[in-house]
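Worked example 3 (structure in, sequence out).
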């Protein structure tokens, strides 16, 4: 859903005006992380959501745990709720994890696991928060002078006071593509994937490459196929491995040239899937448990890879002619 112009202007003001941002922080929503793992709470429906705390709640928790309440000022602005409530994130890794979990009635969960537990609406917010917190933790010094950098109140930039250099959070461009031969789609898996999970092919864009050039190169390198045509789908921020800008596409190859030659330094496996197999995989709603029969499953619904696969399946169903 598009964000309203007044709200976008308000967020811009908070990023640029330290005084306004500091004032708003005192009455805002704060999402807690512990060493970059988000705090989740179980709902009455046995689902999970990010724990929503107000600034006053965080201050009370910090006080009860004997921590300096000024830690709240390290919060980073990440957005605004539908109720126009500014949202911040804060990493409390300096505090005892179990103590914070007990105070908040939740658990800090690894982000990758969180993505399979959260809804399509909540996952991007948590991903953005973790990405910004990580960026601040890894950009504390100027690359030119070696001097410490200093953040603004919103956390939207860091400045080296010695050189005047301004640093902004960055994302690495990645192309992700669902390849089809007209009847089937191609999915692959890396050895680091959970057992049974397959996804669309993806790779980083190299310096100087266009989106199209990167896509063709990745497909050629990973499975030795030649792309004939490309169509753009949509994009997404993805927090892995360290904040990526995913650009999703569909690509077609000749039905006469579909033999795969897999680069096993890149992929553990890759294979063609029929519409029936994809429909079955799309129906898997929960993570397979240890001991369950091995089954093919897909990235979570809010992942761009899942969107590409669902788009392909919808088109295939539409192309079928009923007898």
């Amino acid at each position: 859903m598009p964000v309203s112009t007044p709200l976008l202007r308000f967020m811009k003001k908070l990023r640029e005006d330290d005084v306004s941002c500091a004032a708003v922080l005192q009455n805002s929503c704060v999402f807690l992380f512990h060493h970059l793992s988000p705090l989740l709470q179980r709902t009455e429906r046995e689902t999970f959501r990010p724990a929503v705390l107000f600034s006053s709640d965080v201050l009370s928790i910090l006080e009860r745990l004997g921590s300096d309440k000024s830690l709240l000022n390290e919060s980073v602005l990440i957005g605004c709720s539908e109720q126009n409530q500014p949202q911040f994130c804060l990493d409390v890794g300096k505090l005892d994890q179990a103590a914070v979990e007990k105070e908040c009635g939740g658990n800090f969960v690894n982000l990758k696991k969180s993505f399979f537990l959260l809804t399509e609406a909540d996952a991007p917010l948590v991903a953005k928060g973790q990405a910004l917190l990580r960026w601040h933790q890894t950009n504390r010094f100027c690359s030119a002078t070696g001097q410490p950098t200093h953040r603004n109140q919103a956390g939207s930039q860091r400045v080296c006071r010695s050189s005047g250099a301004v640093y902004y959070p960055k994302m690495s461009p990645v192309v992700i593509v669902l390849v089809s031969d007209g009847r089937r789609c191609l999915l692959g898996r890396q050895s680091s994937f959970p057992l049974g999970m397959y996804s669309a092919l993806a790779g980083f864009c190299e310096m100087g490459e266009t989106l199209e050039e990167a896509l063709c190169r990745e497909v050629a390198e990973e499975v030795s196929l030649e792309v004939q045509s490309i169509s753009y789908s949509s994009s997404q921020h993805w927090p892995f491995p360290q904040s990526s800008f995913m650009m999703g596409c569909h690509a077609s190859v000749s039905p006469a040239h579909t033999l795969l030659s897999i680069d096993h330094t890149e992929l553990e496996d890759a294979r063609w899937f029929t519409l029936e197999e994809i429909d079955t995989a799309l129906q898997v709603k929960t993570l397979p448990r240890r001991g369950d029969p091995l089954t093919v499953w897909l990235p979570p619904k809010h992942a761009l890879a899942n969107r590409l696969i669902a788009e392909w399946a919808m088109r295939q169903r539409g192309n079928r002619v009923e007898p």
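Notes: The chain is about 30% helix and 25% strand. The mean pLDDT is 94.
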